[in-house]
Amino acid sequence: MAPSTIRKSFGTVKDQTSIGIAKVVSNMAPELEVALVKAMSHDDDPANEKYIREILNLTSYSRGYVNACVAVVSKRLGKTRDWIVALKALMLIHRLLNEGDPLFQEEILYATRRGTRLLNMSDFRDEAHSSSWDHSAFVRTYSMYLCQRLELMLFDRKGGSAAGGGGSGGSVHGEIDRYGARDDFRSPPPRPYEYNDYGDYRGESGHGGYGMTRRTRSFGDMSEAVGRDGREERRVVTPLREMKPERIFGKMAHLHRLLDRFLSCRPTGLAKNSRMILIALYPIVRESFQLYADICEVLAVLLDKFFDMEYPDCVKALMLMLAQLSRSMS
User: Ranges for the ENTH domain (predicted)?
Assistant: First the structure.
């Protein structure tokens, strides 16, 4: 029997064992844990859309399901040494950040602040496949990309860029409200991410439907959120033009770091031809268009405010513009 066949058989046995344990031992949400295991299985195929939808549906019920989901995914990421499982877990997190209940974004933030190694994959190394260094590198850079998005959410939450404390995440909901009210902006409001042309990768079986939503919550096209006490809250996002210069500089710095993380996600070596990695890369590339638009938005506001700012702020704005110019030319 070929080593690859043995490896696949061993992975299938491990998945079935995990499913059996979840059905018997899980106290909180056995059906959720089973769906999570199936969505993060060892087989070299994207997760079936049915399991993703089931997870999205279950985590919309209560905070307990959200907590259980974060705990299971965190445990899976912490234990696995298989790049396929790790990549599927990150793709699931990405999908939940885009489409999941606002409580999920909140719980991710709290889990990160508690020190949970949910997205800290800096030391990840695949031990289940041969010639998998390039695949492991992509897993590490992908996790750093998602981590930087959470950093941006936390920045907006701390800065109180919306009434009641939230801009792109003025409350604990991170980016849910980010750029939700753009009537004061120069350009028209961005369209919500629409990943509904995944047919090239998904095929007829329904696998790999990451990003098939018509309306996502990743970069904040919502103005309503649910608080920790379960009550619905409405956030009024502060227009970018009304922010103080230091706040705009801080946002620009985070956007630049997110851009750097995006650029580092470019697969190399054998990873460039991996179907799983290309599928994972697709929503990242789609999001990069909005990221570039956001950077241009900030630059336009800084340009309009330039002659009204204090001299030190003018210097900072000029340095940001020069930095962006050098990035564009490199």
Answer: 24-160
Q: How confident is the model at residue 196 (pLDDT cuts 50, 70, 90)?
A: very low
Secondary structure letter of residue 130 according to DSSP: S
**Bridge partners (DSSP) listed for residue 207:** 48
Q: Select the more confidently predicted residue: 223 or 54.
A: 54
Mind listing the pLDDT tens digit for each residue in 23-52? 556 566 788 888 998 999 888 899 999 999
H or E element: which one contains 232?
Answer: strand 232-234
The pair of structure tokens assigned to 127 is 């031990």
161 pLDDT band (50/70/90 cuts)? very low
Instruction: Identify whether the C-beta of residue 46 lies closer than 8 Å to the C-beta of residue 210.
Output: yes
Cβ(236)–Cβ(181) below 8 Å: yes
- Provide the β-strand partners of residue 224: 234
- End-to-end, the C-alpha distance of the chain in Å comes to 49
CATH, residue 155: 1.25.40.90
How far is the C-alpha of 247 from the C-alpha of 219, rounded, in Å? 18
Identify which of 8-17, 63-72, 172-181, 236-245 has the greatest average pLDDT.
63-72
Strand duo 162-163 + 224-226: pairing: unpaired
CB 282 within 8 A of CB 195: yes
Number of independent structural domains in the chain? 1
Domain that holds residue 43: 3-329
Provide CB contacts within 8 A for 227, sequence distance 6+.
171, 233
CA distance linking residue 321 with residue 327, whole number of Å: 10
Strand-pair partners of 177: none
Measured distance CA(51)–CA(257) in Å, rounded: 33
